[in-house]
Amino acid sequence: MIVTLIKEAGPWAWWILGIVLLVAEIVVPGNVLVWVGVAGLATGLLSNMFWETGWWVWEVQWLTFAALAVLSLWLGRRWLNRSRNQSEEPTLNNRGASLIGRTADLIDPIHNGRGRIKIGDTIWIVNGPDLPAGSRVRVLSNDGSDLKVEAD
Q: Does any domain span residue 90?
């Protein structure tokens, strides 16, 4: 039945399949069908060029479609993973990391390695050398919600 459909629709069957897969990506998001849809459109383009040749039979078309689907999935995933790692604000959702390098005054002394500072409207627990209240400290790193500090 599929072979008959392809023969009757001609090269446009691949264009239709590609468009249906692209539309299906909107309904069922997952970033997979878009790449398979691109492979369907590319197979449609090749079918428009080679339809009249004797070697462009349905088996070759399906193998071409499968190879292009795998290739486009691989290239698409690579491209998305590369662009996903780049960010203009890498510490946007990590407030502790965004405070590294800032200075503040201790509101409670650091005693036995623990104290408190206030940065902005938030009071942070700090770890560092024992210092009296009011001392100026610099944030070195964060460990969850605790900040590691040193005397500034």
A: no
